[in-house]
Design goal:
This protein is of the alpha/beta class. It folds into two domains: 264 residues, Acetylglutamate kinase-like (Carbamate kinase, 3-Layer(aba) Sandwich), CATH 3.40.1160; 93 residues, Archaeosine Trna-guanine Transglycosylase, Chain: A, domain 4. It contains 15 helices and 15 strands. The strands form three sheets. The protein has an eight-stranded mixed β-sheet, sandwiched between helices. A five-stranded mixed β-sheet has the order 12-11-13-14-15, with helices on both faces. The protein is globular. It starts with a helix and ends with a strand.
């Protein structure tokens, strides 16, 4: 299965804060040069590389001579504002010997939620590649509070998964400070076919500077492998790790695709966007959606939560609170509340021309579980 890695021609590489920093918890220029050397080598082979780089806050700590990470949100954002410039300077310096230019893209969660922005991300990255530049992506910590307080992307692992989805990349590589997923004995697990089962191996270690752990890497793996692509977790400080991976060496942990066909860009966005509200369904509807790939009908809806409009992305949940799918709703929340649990004839009598047979048509539904 390593051929899935060796055959990759479009990859996203994410590097975490602890991997980017040295013992002094400051950016390590020698390591950045090493990564730049490897990316330059891959580009020479015709492999396009998009880099998702953490480290803005760590870089800001160094620039401002702060001994530790502030706990106040405003100060964290200020540190990130200073550090993001330094982080990009450091990457520009690392790629300069290869005559490669870097392009900065800063994202917030809203850039993933909005379909137009999601597509613009893809177009911008592709344009940077065409111009011979290396795209470097980070969350915009200066205005986004979610990742800093550990609610949203999770140390950029989930952000990297969304970037890979937007680009339809063949491979996502998460470079960490451990040699892939470790089992209970501390040994590396080389291949994982099912992230849900593999999640039982999670060790909850986190770095002082970063915000994510192995749990966020499994969450990223769920998204990537569910779309039909491959994910690797590997030790970023291993010599020439990226080139060795593409050469097929058995290092790190490979998460294999869970689908034989790759998801469309539209389906990737539906699965990635934050839902505007929630539709709770009964057991029969839940089993039909998960097992038979059918549309959600009003008769199967038991509750409606949140305020949403027709065309919004909604979450579909069981009564037990398990999120089983995302979908584009044909009904606004108020209309759906008035017809939930009813049959088609009653719905048409109540809503007339606003009536639809399906709450979410199967073509607009993306399952999140199996």
């Amino acid at each position: 299965m390593r051929t899935l890695v060796t055959q990759a021609r479009a990859i996203v590489v994410k590097i975490g804060t602890q991997t980017l920093t040295g013992p002094d918890k400051r950016l390590d220029p020698a390591f950045l040069r090493s990564i730049a050397n490897q990316i330059a080598a891959l580009l020479q082979r015709g492999v396009t590389v998009t880099l998702v780089s953490s480290g803005a806050i760590a870089a800001g700590l160094g620039e401002l001579s702060l001994a530790k990470r502030p706990t106040d949100l405003a100060k964290l954002q200020a540190v990130a504002a200073v550090g993001q410039r330094r982080l990009m300077d450091a990457w520009a310096e690392a790629f300069a010997p290869h005559e490669l230019t870097v392009g900065q893209i800063l994202l917030t969660r809203e850039d993933i939620d909005a379909r137009k922005r999601f597509l613009n991300l893809r177009n911008t990255v592709h344009a940077l590649h065409e111009l011979g530049a290396v795209p470097i992506i980070n969350e915009n910590d200066t205005i986004s509070t979610d990742e800093i307080v550990q609610i949203s992307f999770g140390d950029n692992d989930i952000l990297a998964a969304h970037v890979a989805a937007a680009l339809r990349a063949d491979l996502l590589v998460l470079l960490s400070n451990v040699d892939g997923v470790l089992d209970a004995a501390g040994q590396s697990v080389r291949t994982i076919e099912d992230p849900v089962e593999g999640a039982k191996l999670i060790r909850t270690d986190k770095s002082q500077l970063g915000t994510g752990g192995m749990d966020s890497k499994f969450a990223a793996a769920e998204r990537v492998t569910g779309a039909g692509e491959t994910l690797v977790v590997a030790r970023g400080r291993d010599e020439n790790v990226l080139v060795r991976l593409i050469d097929g060496e058995a290092i790190g942990t490979v998460f294999l695709p869970r689908k034989t066909s790759r998801a469309s860009g539209r389906s990737r966005w539906i699965g990635a966007a934050r839902p505007a509200g929630t539709v709770v369904v009964d057991d029969g509807a839940a089993k039909a959606i998960v097992g038979r790939n059918v549309s959600l009908l009003p008769a199967g809806v038991t509750a409606v939560r949140g305020e949403f409009e027709k065309g919004d992305v909604v979450a579909i949940e069981t009564a037990a609170g398990e999120k089983i799918a995302h979908g584009l709703t044909n009904y606004a929340a108020a209309d759906l509340e008035s017809i939930r649990g009813q049959k088609t004839a009653a719905i048409r009598a109540a809503l007339a021309e606003r009536a639809y047979d399906e709450v979410v048509h199967r073509d607009n539904l993306v399952k999140l579980t199996r």
